[in-house]
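Recall that a protein's primary structure is simply its ordered list of amino acids. Everything else, from secondary elements to tertiary packing, is in principle encoded there. The following example makes that idea concrete.
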Amino acid sequence: MADPEPRRARGDLAQQILDVLRTAGRALTPAQVLDELGGDLAYTTVMTVMARPHDKGVLARQRTGRACTYTPWQDPARVTARSRHRLLNGEPDRAGALARFIDDLPTEDEQVLRELLAQITHDDAEGPDRGVS
C-alpha cells in the first residue's frame, strides 16, 4: 500500500493560498486558486480556507457573477504586525511580553530592530517642520 500524501501543518494551506494570490497580482476565484495549487484538494476546502483570512481582514472578497474573487487586502508585513498587536493588546504584562520577545530575537533581528528604532528616533527629532523655510 502506498503512503498517503503527508498532511499539511496547520496554516500551511492558508499560506500557500496567500502566496498564490500575491503572485497572481489579480483577483482569483477559489477554483482558480485550486488549479494553481494542484494536488487532490477539494474545492470546498480551498473555499473554506480562503474565507478565514477574509474574515480576519487579510483578503478582500468581491462577488463576481455566481462566484467570489479574492485579493490580498494588505501587504504581508502589515498583516503580521497587526496580528502581533492583537496578541500584545490581550497581554496584561505588555512590558514583560515585549522584553521576552526582544530577548528571544536572533542577533540579526535584534540589530534590525535597533536600526529601525534609531531611524524612528532620528525622524522624530527632525520633526515635521524641519527644513521648511
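Residues 91-126 form one domain. DSSP finds six helices and two strands in the chain.
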